[in-house]
Amino acid sequence: MIQLVWFRMDMRVHDNPALFHACQQGQPVLAVTCLTQQQWQQHGLGQRKWQLLINSLHGLQQHLHDLNIPLLVLNSGDFHSSVDDVKALIQRLASSDMPVSDVNFNLEYEVNERKRDIELQRWCQQQNIGVNKFHDQCVIPPGEVVTRQQQPFKVYSPFKRAWWQQFDRYNQAPLAIPQPPVDAITPDLQDIVKELSAALPAAENDPLWNCHELAVHEQLEEFLQHRARYYADTRDFPASPGTSSLSYALSLGLISPRQCLYTAWQKNGCQLSGGKAGLASWINELIWREFYRHLLVAFPQLCKHHAFKPETEGVPWRTSAAAERDFQAWCEGKTGYPIVDAAQRQLLDTGWMHNRLRMISAMFLTKHLLIDWRRGEAFFNQHLVDADLASNNGGWQWSASTGADGAPYFRIFNPTTQSQRFDSAGEFIARYVAELATLPAKSRHQPNSLECQQNQYPTAIVEHKFARQRALDAFKQTMAEANNDAVQPSLIE
Q1: Which of 317, 427, 455, 481 is the catalytic position?
Q2: I need a surface site. Which of 8, 109, 140, 441 has the fewest CB within 10 A?
Q3: Beta 29-34 vs 2-7: how paired, if at all?
Q4: pLDDT above 90 as % of the chain
Q5: Are 331 and 364 in contact, with CB atoms under 8 Å apart?
Q6: E strands present in 311-391
Q7: Among 3.30.450.40, 3.40.50.10610, 1.10.565.10, 1.25.40.80, what is the CATH number of 137-173+214-298?
Q8: Among this protein's residues, is 68 annotated catalytic?
Q9: What sign has the CA pseudo-torsion 289, 293, 298, 303?
């Protein structure tokens, strides 16, 4: 009998519940992964993150080999095909007198992924094959943090307080690397792996993003030992290396959220709040990540491009030719707002954007340009190396005032004052908007028309005061209509 482990976005051997469980059963372990590139493209994910996934699989394959576990690679196309391919693999093994005893995998929470897993589980039950499912994307599983009325939380702060209360129940040390299976993989099974396994596409080193699991662990340790001490003070300043830069590794499953949170919790004197301000602040960000995953399960419409607040579905987003020109200027970092343009160019250059800048850029697109948040969400999804539906959707809807947030729609960042506050010396702007690097620091935040002309930098595509009022009018009208109030139509374009 064989234990089959299906790897998805959990590219690691440390703290991997599905792998650990399979290795405890005293049976040979076979790993499988499905390269669903067509599904990847349907979900709008970009080539850069796809390459990081491939790089991660190369490292995983070597780590599993060291544990005497072969990794079989299937070119499945999409999720539906992946289920058929795993079924065919199980049937092939059974016909060779190597039946699968159990299928083990870590759960994913998106709608399509859940449908895939339900389909496989039903088939396995018909075949009397065990299915062992594990939570590894959240420290506390979705559905376990609810209100007194057993309803999901819709706002972060009360969710966090309830999450704290549940933490002791689920807090445990990360799982170690499992011991290699006692029973070795037979030559016959090795032959099947060679016959059925596709070759992994070539790894391509990305100097910005290391896809080796051990290096990611070292990155976590280095951050917690040094920069985390100042995280609360530096996390909002994009010119400083104040963040962990681990979001890409979490999104690929190169490291588990439990590994991150447990290690930070220990270093903070076993406290979630209080203790060292930097560590407590970073722990808070990890809980934000959990919140968005819990929302994804409680409100599956978030996976289907719907606004969390139904009443905001009627916001009259701009769709004219002028709006399209504005959207392209935003995509290319040519809006005439230096902090927005620097943020967009950082994304295009590196595949990553600082979190403060994500809020500024997203709010600029949705409030200043009044362009549908879904378009911005899709653009980020295509370019981010840490692209992740729960966090990306949550962040965009927060910025657009359509999401899970108690603040009213009239929260609208002024990008210039945000720039002056969080990049006071214009250092980050100079780094990514080279046209403005020779200007005095104060001028970099809002160059005048002559400075723009001399430095071949675009003037602002929209005036802040006008844009703010336009957004307020659009949301006010939408809210009134949602409440069945009679209002006079207003000119939005």
Answers
A1: 317
A2: 441
A3: parallel
A4: 91
A5: no
A6: none
A7: 1.25.40.80
A8: no
A9: positive
State the catalytic residue, choosing from 40, 50, 123, 288.
288
Active site residue 317: yes
208-244 confidence digits (pLDDT tens): 999 999 999 999 999 999 999 999 999 999 999 999 9
- 40 catalytically annotated: no
Q: Residue 388 annotated as binding?
A: yes
Is residue 287 a known part of a binding site? yes
**26 token code pair:** 């005293």
484: confidence class by pLDDT, cuts 50, 70, 90: low
Active-site pick, 113, 119, 285, 427: 285
Fold designation for 1-135: Rossmann fold (3.40.50)
- What is the edge-to-edge ordering of all strands in the sheet holding 71-74? 71-74, 29-34, 2-7, 100-106, 130-134
Q: What are 288-311's pLDDT values in tens digits?
A: 999 999 999 999 999 999 999 999
Name the strand (E) or helix (H) holding 397: helix 389-400
CA within 13 Å, CB half, 191: 7
